[in-house]
Each structure stands twice: as structure tokens, then as C-alpha cells.
Specification:
Length: 165
């Protein structure tokens, strides 16, 4: 078990997911138990690009953005334990290796997605992912998202690790 606590892994600095900053919807990993559980957070600031059109004067986090954040949080389950623990070292060589390996995790399907409450700027989304089933290099994950202790969304997602081109 690896409880990161105050040493939360800042995903904007480590670049372990295959997305650029404009499409990275997880800010921190605060808990990681390889293959068992991950807890990640997203701060909704209101400065994000999608709020310009969703909706002017009444900003609401789009459901598909929340689903993407949940998928990104869940894919971390497929990373071996040494990836996140060594990331605390922040060596350039290690981070390049980590980024190359993490780029092979791809989202495949989403099922049973439910949205229960809207999310507005100024909130922090806490996403908890647990595997339903892990098969070699693929996983079906259940991810729940909470704001202020209330369930705002949940869903099951399938991801797989594939080879880099």
C-alpha cells in the first residue's frame, strides 16, 4: 500500500498520462495501492477552456469532461507500484521512462455511467477508482466522483495497455 498524503503526486509536473495540459483532468494522486485502489483529485477553477461555452454566465462542468477525468484517474491503477513511488524522486530519466510506459494505456469502453449532481467552479472533485477485473494488461474499473462528500457521478470503464508505435 502506498498512501501519498501530503506528498501527493502532481500529474501536471510528471506527465504520466498521454494528454497535454489542456486535456489533463486529474491534478493529483493522493492514494495509490497498485491494482487495488487509486484516489485522485481535480480542482475545478472556472478558468478551464470548456467553461467559455458551457454555459456563459452559468458555468457547469460538462459531463463528458467529468467522465474523462474519471477515466484518467482510473487508468493509474494499471501502473506498477514503482512508477508512482519513484516519481517522488523526480529524475528526468525516470520521468521520461514513466511517461513512455503510461502512454500505452488506452481507454476502450464506458458503461453504467451515471451523473447525480452538477459541479461548478470552486470545487474539488475526489475520484476513487477500484478494479472490477484485471486481466493481464487490461482492466475494468469502477470509478466514483465526489464533491464535498456527495456522490456526483460513477461509472465503469475498460482500459488496456498497448504497445507504443
Amino acid at each position: 500500500m502506498n498512501v501519498l498524503g501530503n506528498n501527493a503526486l502532481d500529474l501536471r509536473k510528471t506527465k504520466i498520462l498521454l494528454v497535454t495540459d489542456s486535456f489533463l483532468f486529474v491534478d493529483r494522486v493522493t492514494y495509490f495501492d497498485p491494482g487495488k485502489k487509486v484516489i485522485a483529485e481535480k480542482d475545478v477553477t472556472g478558468e478551464e477552456w470548456f467553461f467559455k461555452g458551457h454555459f456563459p454566465g452559468n458555468p457547469i462542468l460538462p459531463g463528458h469532461i467529468l467522465a474523462e477525468a474519471m477515466i484518467q484517474a482510473g487508468t493509474i491503477i494499471l501502473l506498477p507500484e514503482h512508477f508512482l513511488t519513484k516519481t517522488m524522486i523526480q529524475t528526468d530519466t525516470f520521468l521520461r521512462d514513466l511517461a513512455d510506459r503510461a502512454k500505452t494505456v488506452n481507454y476502450l469502453t464506458a458503461t453504467k455511467i451515471r451523473f447525480f449532481k452538477i459541479t461548478r467552479p470552486g470545487k474539488t472533485i475526489i475520484m476513487t477508482g477500484t478494479p472490477i477485473k484485471v486481466i493481464s494488461s487490461a482492466a475494468i474499473m469502477h470509478v466514483e466522483a465526489h464533491v464535498d462528500g456527495e456522490l456526483i457521478a460513477r461509472g465503469d470503464f475498460t482500459v488496456a495497455r498497448t504497445k507504443n508505435k
